[in-house]
Amino acid sequence: MLGLAINEPSRPGGPEGDRFFDGAQPQHDANQLGAAQPLPAANQAGLPRHLQKLIQAGLARRQQGYRGRFAPSPTGDLHRGNLRTALLSWLHARLQGGEWLLRLDDLDQPRNRPGAANRILADLRWLGLDWDGPPLLQSSRRGLYASVLSSLRRRGRLYPCACSRRLLADVSAPHGALAVYPGFCRQRALGWGPCQGRLPSWRLRLPEAPIRWAEDSPWPGWLEGATEVGDVVLRRADGLVAYHLATAVDELSLGITAVVRGDDLWASTGAQVALMAALGAGPPRYWHVPLWRDPQGQRLSKRAAAEGLAGLRQGGADGPAVIGLLAASLGLVPGGSRLSAQELCQQLQLSELLAAVHGRLTPIHQDPSAGEA
Ligand SMILES: [Zn+2]
Question: How far is CA 359 from the centre of its chain?
């Protein structure tokens, strides 16, 4: 038993979740924050007052310094690729004197694996990647996400989509010309209720303009919305809140200033930045880092977990050996090094970290359907 607050709070958005979520503003009230960091009123016109306050508190928290996060899904154990991304995210935060939060993206509950959340926390702790505050469970924030969805819908930023999975698979198949959802339902006068016995999914209506963000990797952070991102689903037909919605809301309301994650999430960043703009706020800064790929250039799957931490431990490796292995894979230390995460942090400069990683970048790989870790 890890003694960590990873059980569902007694009520949705209950004390644990609220304490963590609103922890950015313990010594202020939201009115003071709103007065200190006024936003142009037009930005959030039409959002309910409680959402305006939440977003403003998050934006005000950003002004207080670096705040990063790592956000794995408890769908399995972290493999060495996930752990390396976690190490990079942690180093990026600690080298800048920042906070590092841990968030479990556990909304897709059928995909969650029993015990995976506890094992993720145990593995990070074993590696010495310490986080600030209690872990946040997205599953305890469903009320907030539903409230954001409703307000976006009321403001005309969403539309219902009745396209079947089969149709979408056909148009995005390798021989199909379309890499993103082409907006079939944008102009259809569909209702929000069941259509032929099936509820529609809810899609974000992307604006025409390019989507831009601040990026630490050498690639400029931008995507063409219509052709590279598309009108993403924010609420699935089965009612599940989509990853993009929960992630964008969390980055904003937690006051996240920096997101370090795998470069497979580049296209997701476009969707999430567009969504934050729809909520009247700018995005954090991003650093998309290369995934750990096998010698054939394929990303490691969760099935490769057997070769991950559990496998390394069974082979007799301890924490310093694993940190040495992860760091050596980026050329941060010589092969065979043994050192703690803390020692690695102490001997590194931020510029060295960025340069080492950028020396190993391959062109951005896009996978708009991917979640994090
Ligand atoms: Zn559709």
Answer: 24
How many independent structural domains does the chain possess?
A: 1
**Taking a C-beta distance cutoff of 8 angstroms, is the pair 260, 134 a contact?**
no
Q: Ligand 1 centroid to 32 CA: how many Å?
A: 43
Residue 45 amino acid letter: A
Whole-number Å distance between alpha carbons of 330 and 324: 10
**Global pTM value:** 0.83
CATH number at residue 210: 3.90.800.10
**Separation CA 184–CA 163 (nearest Å):** 8
135 domain residue, yes or no: no
Distance 204 CA to ligand 1 centre (A): 11
The CA R_g of the chain, rounded to the nearest whole Å, is 21
Q: Is 160 helix (H, G, I), strand (E, B) or coil?
A: strand
Give the model confidence (pLDDT) of 85-110 as tens digits: 999 999 999 999 999 999 999 999 88
| Residue 210, domain member (yes or no) | yes
Distance from Cα 183 to the centre of ligand 1, integer Å: 6
Supply φ then ψ for residue 144, to 5 degrees.
Answer: -65, -45
Find the domain containing 210 and state its range. Answer: 150-235
Taking only the tens place, the pLDDT of each residue in 3-13 is: 343 333 333 33
Q: Is 302 a catalytic residue?
A: yes
Span from the CA of 312 to the centroid of ligand 1 (angstroms): 46
CA–centroid distance, 160 to ligand 1, in Å, is: 7
H or E element: which one contains 83? Answer: helix 80-94
Domain assignment present for residue 332? The answer is no
Taking the C-alpha atoms of residue 296 and residue 320, their distance in angstroms, rounded to an integer, is: 28
Phi first, then psi, for residue 70 (nearest 5°) are -125, 135
User: Within a domain: residue 288?
Assistant: no
Active-site pick, 138, 302, 319, 322? 302
Q: Which residues surround ligand 1, an ion (CB under 5 A)?
A: 161, 163, 184-185
Assigned token pair, 373 = 């870790």
